[in-house]
């Protein structure tokens, strides 16, 4: 957080309340999350050059920690599935056919989790490419300023066969 001390601050009437607000915002965050968020803020992630407010700082930290928390949740889900399968096998004494079905079910769930991870990685890569293109053109990257493409009825070109 010391890295942010070089940023100008907004004039506040109650510095003690501000200190308490930062303590509340930083409750439960990791050192990695805070350090990375500070680096991102210093690189212009907020779009302004002021000291971030407590909520702005917490939002940046949560954004850094989101992929880590999602990976932990996937790992816990996978571990729970494996534990449940082991308990079921012990309880029921599965036949080879049942084991095969359970294995297929597990592989299906695992493939779905892998697909979800690949989709998330594709989204992150697309955002990175947009940011790089924007910075190359000398613009600030801000997702809030990107407008949706206008949609309308489709016209058919040519004949239907």
Walk me through the structure.
The structure is a single chain. By secondary structure, this protein is an all-alpha fold. It has a domain at 1-69. It contains four helices and no strands. It has helices spanning 15-25, 31-42, 54-92, 96-136. Helix 1 packs parallel to helix 3, helix 2 packs across helix 3 and helix 3 (54-92) runs antiparallel to helix 4. The longest helix has 41 residues, at 96-136. The mean pLDDT is 81.
List the helices and strands and how they pair.
Blueprint: H1 15-25, H2 31-42, H3 54-92, H4 96-136
In short:
The protein has 161 residues and is an all-alpha fold. The protein contains 4 helices and no strands.
Write a concise keyword list for the protein shown above.
161 residues, mainly alpha, 64% helix
* Cα radius of gyration in angstroms: 24 Å
How many beta-strand runs? Answer: 0
Largest β sheet strand count, sense and barrel closure: none
Q: Unreliable segments (pLDDT under 50, ≥5 consecutive)? A: none
Give the N-to-C terminal Cα separation. 66 Å
Question: Which word captures the global form?
Answer: elongated
The chain-level structural class is mainly alpha
H-E string:
HHHH
**Helix share of residues?**
55-70%
Q: Specify the number of helices.
A: 4
% residues in beta strands: under 5%
Give the overall pLDDT as a whole number.
81
């Amino acid at each position: 957080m010391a890295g942010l001390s070089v940023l100008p601050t907004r004039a506040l009437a109650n510095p003690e309340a501000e200190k308490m607000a930062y303590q509340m915002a930083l409750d439960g965050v990791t050192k990695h999350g805070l350090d990375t968020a500070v680096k991102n803020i210093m690189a212009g992630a907020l779009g302004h050059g002021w000291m971030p407010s407590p909520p702005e700082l917490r939002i940046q930290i949560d954004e850094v920690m989101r992929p880590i928390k999602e990976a932990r949740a996937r790992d816990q889900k996978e571990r729970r599935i494996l534990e449940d399968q082991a308990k079921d096998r012990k309880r029921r004494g599965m036949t080879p056919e049942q084991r095969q079905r359970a294995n297929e079910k597990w592989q299906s769930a695992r493939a779905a989790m892998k697909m979800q991870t690949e989709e998330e990685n594709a989204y992150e890569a697309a955002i990175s490419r947009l940011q790089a293109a924007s910075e190359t053109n000398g613009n600030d990257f801000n997702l809030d300023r990107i407008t949706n493409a206008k949609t309308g009825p489709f016209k058919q070109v040519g004949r239907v066969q």
